[in-house]
Amino acid sequence: MLTAKQADVLIQQLSVLVVDDNPYMRKMLRSLLTAIGIKVLYEAEDGISGLELVRTLSPDIVVLDWEMPLLNGAEFLRIVRSPGVFPTPNLPVIMLSGHCERWRVVEAARLGVNEFLCKPVSHQALYQRLLSIVATPRASVQIGDYYGPQPRRPALPSDGGTATR
Fold first, then answer.
1. Is residue 129 part of a domain?
2. How far apart are CA 45 and CA 92, in angstroms?
3. pTM for this one?
4. Residue 89 domain-assigned?
5. Has residue 164 been placed in a domain?
6. Spans of the chain, pLDDT less than 70
7. What does the pLDDT read at residue 109?
8. Domain around 133
9. pLDDT at 77
């Protein structure tokens, strides 16, 4: 178990890329992440420029919006989670969306998102998701056509063999 000070040190060492088309949301996330202690922060206004920044800057974590023009969050995630095609398929991704219907959360998990947060997001919720990723990282696995973080619990016979992430 990490102490609060150890957790803060881990968080402060992260570089984070925020990919969101809404300038107000990027500003709000920048404020939250800075308050949490993130010192290295990058921003992209769409999925295409986000992919380019991932390739050139190699951030530790991406905070990704679902709905964006040109390349949405789901398409971004499909590209990133392509081992052998994309250079960093194990990149941790937090999906942050104002669209929090159950089907989207399930789809994001199916696509390999590490964490999912609903807008508006709190300082504490964002901190906890970042800490979860760095303090208890899940190994990336290939299960059928799924590539992403190890599911949190194995499939149960009663749920038809599908894993809940």
1. yes
2. 19
3. 0.90
4. yes
5. no
6. 153-165
7. 93
8. 4-159
9. 96
Instruction: Give residue 154's pLDDT.
Output: 53
Euclidean distance between CA atoms 82 and 61, whole angstroms: 17
Q: Is residue 165 a part of any domain in this protein?
A: no
Cβ(96)–Cβ(53) below 8 Å: no
Distance CA 132, CA 144 (A): 25
Classify residue 138 by burial, with Cβ atoms within 10 Å: 0-12, 13-18, 19+.
middle
Q: In this structure, how many other beta carbons lie within 10 angstroms of the beta carbon of residue 126?
A: 22
Both structure tokens of 8: 């803060």
Question: Cα–Cα distance between 59 and 40 in angstroms, integer?
Answer: 9
Helix (H, G, I), strand (E, B) or coil at 87: coil
Look at the chain and report how many structural domains it folds into. Answer: 1
Backbone φ and ψ of 45, nearest 5°: -95, 0
β-bridge pairing 146-149 and 140-143: antiparallel
The Cα 157–Cα 2 span in angstroms is 35
CATH of the domain at 30: 3.40.50.2300
> Could you tell me the maximum CA-CA distance found in the chain, to the nearest angstrom?
45
